[in-house]
From TrEMBL:
InterPro entries: DUF3772, LSM_dom_sf, MS_channel_1st, MS_channel_C, MscS-like_channel, MscS_beta-dom_sf, MscS_channel_2nd, MscS_channel_C_sf. It is a multi-pass membrane protein. This is MscS mechanosensitive ion channel. Residues 631-696 form the Mechanosensitive ion channel MscS domain. It comes from Pseudomonas mandelii JR-1. Residues 41-68 form a coiled coil. The keyword Ribosomal protein does not apply. Keywords: Cell membrane, Coiled coil, Membrane, Signal, Transmembrane, Transmembrane helix. Residues 708-788 form the Mechanosensitive ion channel MscS C-terminal domain. The keyword Cell membrane applies. Residues 588-629 form the Mechanosensitive ion channel transmembrane helices 2/3 domain. GO terms for cellular component: plasma membrane. Residues 140-200 form the DUF3772 domain. It is found in: Cell membrane.
Length: 795
């Protein structure tokens, strides 16, 4: 009876556990005491074996690959394998959780189940345990396969790096030599055969789509693809432009949205046109592996060319100069307008021909000729662009017009691009063909990455300014919802904008070095996330590549810290309610922590593992014990000053006979500015260990203006008392509370001494106030005919 109740309870709870109250047959049968073979979601052993065979085949192809193009294709294959494994794991995880939940409902094995092994509960538990064991086994196998594939990605990256290093350092002959042009005028017989085979396979694919009965549909698809690529792009761009103009708020956000709309319209229409074109040519007969490889690479090159033209058109905006995001004058924009299109067409033609040599496996001279021709033409185009832009800028400057506003980063990028162009041309002349091709490809890739991220950065900043603007609907809603003021909204906008731009800048720097011409968006995301989420280097293995990474990490880290500190000092901290001393302390503390992190990142880039730093720490401990203890003591004292803040920048202090304003708190010492504008440098440890008088601590310190005057014995003391009191009370800087008072301090044969005391708002204005009071007192004493006592003559 109790077993039957358990069985009914299990069925009810299982029904309640499902989302829609319905169970599959695989769930109801065990609940009713009927077993079935396997769950519908359990992967069979044959499927797992096929995955293992697929992975082994990829490993074999990696061992036989000998050029970068093959490695890129294999990297795509490994990534596709990982995606398939992830999909299978995602489908099994809910099944695993459901089986575990059903086992939890049944509970552990009870005494009644042991006595009656053939009960419903025992049968159900055995069935569910068997199913969960199969699912766990499948998940474990899939995890192992995924880990192996992830290791292959790391190995492929290493092989690609080695192939690249070997290619760029190979000297193959100058472009001025006859050997470079030999594949063009007298190609080898095997190269002609491979080219003929490629043309034959391409013709077969075209003939399959051009066979009788299919020609009309093929023509319609090709015409439709061309229409989408040309007229469709214009229609989509005009539609998105209309949406931005009529739906986006007027201002900077509308301008950046218009630039992004131009790029998005170009990419979407091109992608749709490419899919139509490929469907028109491959719907009847699948492409051969050779033509398929070329088609994949050709598609990548088309997207690269479209990005070049789309980004340049969006950033130059020659038709609508008011929409232009970068600070480029109209003559310069008009002068360089045709060059991106020329560069895109050149890359489309030359790189496509070079890909034919790669996929068909032509001879090394033919491959080098294709690389050298690409590098030569692209270098000449970029060099001509720089020369024409410089000539137009000089002409504009000669007319007296205002020069273009430029930043240090933009000037640095422009200089590096010009230098790289010169190096590429020199490499072609002295015979380093692969190096020149690599430089030109990186120039093109750098333009795409920097232009794209510049556009995204501008859009993100403008979006933050609009969303948190007190005048926008979103800003008003946030004010009402959170009960904050305009200043807080502005602070939130600055913080979010700064964090977003810093993140985009970091992604741009990573993308510059992990990708290249032909890198897909998926590959770029995968490699970027691998870098951001990787464990780093694990051994102390300093090699030239690590040194380069360390230098890049050092320079980029210092630049980011300085940029963020300028953002804190100039944008964020001035918008807060903190006093200037607190702002300076926070800025200094941020920079100190940032530099420490940059040093750690640099050591990590060198390949130094933290466990290997024990000997460095031991050596430093000995040095600290002898010669560095004072430096360490001052450094720790500086951190205490910045955190506990017994003194801060702007305080008036007095220590060891030195009195002045704190100008700066550095890592080792503090700068104190005296009244004569001279600077006294005091070690931080003295500010912690010695008695220190902080005159302005808390911001409520008051100054005391006291004057002591001696009068002759024959004066009227009350008259003089009232005169002094009125003079103090009528002075603007003297406070009402505490009240001013006049005291009879001394009576001598030489005269009567009166002391008058008043309070001012700050100790810094005591001297100026006392001077003004003395001038006024002497003026009033002279008008009243009262003289000061004269000191007695000394014989």
């Amino acid at each position: 009876m109790r077993n039957a109740l358990k069985s009914m309870m299990f069925v009810v709870l299982t029904l309640l556990a499902t989302s829609d109250g319905a169970l599959s047959a695989a769930d109801i049968l065990p609940a009713a005491g009927i077993t079935s073979g396997t769950s519908s979601l359990v992967i069979s052993q044959s499927d797992l074996q096929n995955l293992q065979i697929r992975l082994d085949r990829i490993k074999q192809q990696i061992s036989l690959a000998n050029n970068l193009t093959q490695m890129v294709g294999l990297q795509d294959a490994v990534q596709s394998f990982i995606n398939d494994v992830d999909s299978l794991q995602s489908s099994l995880l809910p099944e695993q959780k459901q089986l575990q939940a059903q086992l939890d409902v049944l509970g552990p094995v009870s005494l009644d189940d042991v006595e009656s092994e053939k009960s419903d509960i025992a049968t159900q538990r055995a069935y569910l345990s068997e199913q969960k064991t199969k699912v766990d086994s499948s998940l474990k196998t899939l995890t192992a396969l995924r880990n192996n594939a992830a290791g292959l990605l790391i190995q492929i990256a290493g092989i690609r790096r080695n192939l690249l290093e070997s290619e760029v350092t190979l000297r193959s002959g100058s472009i001025l030599g006859p050997g470079f042009w030999a594949p063009l005028f007298s190609p080898l017989k095997e190269d002609r055969q491979r080219l003929s085979e490629f043309i034959q396979q391409a013709s077969s694919a075209i003939k399959a789509a051009w066979q009788p009965g299919e020609r009309l549909f093929t023509i319609a698809l090709i015409v439709l693809a061309l229409g989408v690529w040309s007229w469709g792009r214009r229609i989509a761009e005009r539609g998105l432009t209309w949406v931005c103009i009529h739906r986006m708020p007027e201002g900077r956000l509308r301008r950046s949205s218009l630039a992004l709309a131009s790029v998005v319209a170009t990419l979407l229409t091109t992608a749709f046109a490419m899919q139509l074109l490929f469907y028109a040519l491959t719907r009847q007969l699948p492409l051969s592996p050779l033509i398929q490889n070329f088609a994949d690479e050709f598609e990548k090159i088309i997207y690269v060319c479209i990005l070049i033209t789309g980004l340049s058109r969006a950033l130059l905006s020659t038709r609508h100069p008011s929409w232009r995001l970068p600070a480029i004058s109209d003559p310069v924009a008009l002068a360089i307008q045709p060059f991106p299109r020329i560069l895109a067409v050149t890359l489309l033609i030359l790189v496509s021909l070079a890909q034919i040599t790669n996929v068909t496996g032509m001879s090394p001279p033919a491959i080098l000729f294709g690389r050298g021709l690409i590098a030569l033409v692209v270098t000449l185009i970029i060099g001509t662009l720089f020369r024409r832009a410089s000539r137009v800028r000089r002409a504009v400057a000669a007319t007296g017009e205002a020069p273009e506003s430029s930043t240090t980063l933009a000037g640095l990028i422009y200089s590096l691009a010009g230098f790289a162009t010169v190096v590429s041309l020199i490499a072609l002349l002295i015979g380093y063909i692969s190096l020149a091709r690599f430089i030109t490809y990186q120039l093109v890739w750098g333009f795409i990455i920097l232009s794209g991220f510049y556009l995204l950065t501008q859009l993100f900043r403008d979006s933050c300014e609009y969303l948190f603007s007190p005048k926008s609907p979103s800003g008003k809603a946030l004010k009402q919802l959170l009960g904050i003021g305009d200043v807080r909204l502005e602070q939130a906008s600055i913080i979010l904008s700064g964090v977003g731009r810093a993140g985009l800048m970091l992604l741009a720097v990573i993308s510059l070095f992990v990708g290249g011409v032909g890198t897909t968006l998926g590959q770029l995301f995968t490699q970027t996330f691998a870098i951001l989420g990787g464990d780093g280097l694990r051994k102390l293995n300093i090699i030239p590549g690590h040194l380069l990474n360390a230098l890049l990490a050092l320079f980029i880290g210092i630049y980011l810290i300085r940029a963020l500190r300028r953002w804190l000092d100039n944008e964020f901290l001035p918008k807060t309610d903190m006093d200037p001393g607190m702002c300076a302390s926070l800025s200094t503390l941020f920079s100190n922590i940032g530099y420490a992190l940059v040093i750690l990142l640099t050591l990590s880039s060198l390949g130094i593992e933290w466990t290997n730093l024990a000997w460095i720490v031991s050596a430093l401990s000995v040095g600290i014990g002898f010669g560095l203890q004072e430096i360490v003591k001052n450094f720790v004292s500086g951190l205490i000053l910045l955190t506990e803040r017994p003194v801060k920048v702007g305080d008036l202090i007095s220590i060891s006979g030195v009195e002045g304003d704190i100008r700066r708190i550095n890592v080792r010492a503090t700068e104190i500015q005296l009244s004569d504008r001279s600077i006294v440098i005091v070690p931080n440890s003295q500010l912690i260990s010695q008695n220190l008088r902080n005159v302005t601590l808390g911001g409520s310190a008051q100054g005391v203006a006291t004057l002591e005057l001696m009068f002759p014995l024959d004066i009227d003391p009350e008259q003089v008392q009232n005169l002094l009191y009125d003079t103090y009370r009528e002075n603007e800087t003297i406070l009402d509370k505490p009240a001013t008072f006049v005291r009879f301090s001394k009576l001598t044969p030489e005269g009567i001494t009166l002391t008058v005391t008043g309070y001012v708002s700050s100790p810094r204005i005591v001297g100026t106030t006392k001077s003004d009071l003395l001038f006024e007192i002497l003026k009033r004493l002279g008008a009243a005919g009262i003289e000061l006592a004269k000191p007695a003559s000394t014989v």
